[in-house]
Amino acid sequence: MLKKSTNKTNDYTGNNSVKLISGGSPFFAELEKLIDQSLKSLHFQFYIFDDDETGTRVAETLVRAARRGVQIYVLLDGYASRSLKDETILMLEDAGVHFRWFQPLFSGNNFFIGRRMHHKVVVADARHSLVSGVNISNRYNDMPDEPAWLDWAASASGEVSLQLHNLCVQMWFKRPPLQSHPNVSMAGIGQCQIRVRVNDWARNKNEISRSYIEMFRNAQTNITIMSSYFLPGRLFRKNLLLAAKRGIHIKIILTKVSDIFIAKQAEKFFYPWLLKRNIEIYEYRKKVLHGKMATCDGQWVTVGSYNFNDLSTYASVELNLDVKDAEFSQSTDDALERIMNEDCDKITKESLEQQTYWWHKFFYRVAYALSRLMLVVFTFRFTHGGIRRYK
Length: 391
Hints:
Low-confidence stretches: 1-9, 382-391
Distance between the termini: 8 Å
Number of strands: 19
């Protein structure tokens, strides 16, 4: 059962503007602009930062900003970004960039096997921000003859960026900020309602999970979910079922080709369960789908790093933005509708039966069991007092 979050600042703020950014070259153009236009401070927190063409260009952009006098704080996950070369880190630090790893494995008094910093966020001057599921790697960028994986970001300005700035300060210094960022004007930005949502089981935060539960319970007409690694736990299955029974039109967009083979096979284990409840399934066929978002009733959107599975719920540190705005929701729904119509195969009961034999069903069940076992392993924590499992 999910425990109540202790966060006191997760209400919507109204003085904001937001736009949806697709992954690939639009995202990296927005990221480079955000860094280049920063004046005083920049927080940069990512799960994966690779030493490839994309990573090199982003690193050089950070160096330029640091040499202009911008105070830059780079926090990378100590596991997923472990291949980053010492030379790249030294180049950043020589330019004045403050660099730190997020809890490398086997460090500190507490060792959480599955607790990785999975979120992707950039905040400039506590006023502008970029929250996404996109990592810094060629896979997420449009390269010559190789399109990017499908992904999304929310580019926001206003009060929500100040909240994100304070969150990043807390992540970096491992304590709450002493005061809000000084001299930040939010006048004339916009009237979009946005809130920051965090999942971090080790710190008793489960806000994104609760956003999804609220969505299922409050939906009036329709829900669309896009998820790169779809493996709903018991609580999410229950709420999916209840929403479907109420007649909510639910569509789920998944990847046809996954970068994690076993995860895709485990995902297929749920296809009959979903179709039996009249939940529509669409498989994106053009490339790997890495996006994580949901829309509801043409009024509400959540977007960020959170996958629709128990690993995001009970282990990783995740970050989403919830946006309550009809115009933004409509543009997001339009983008997802185009993808379903143009780039997806719709899975039906008939097509599934034609493509699935008994050995497929057996393999899907085995893959699901292995995925559940991995979750058990990833949600153990080792402390100086012994071994515990997240509950």
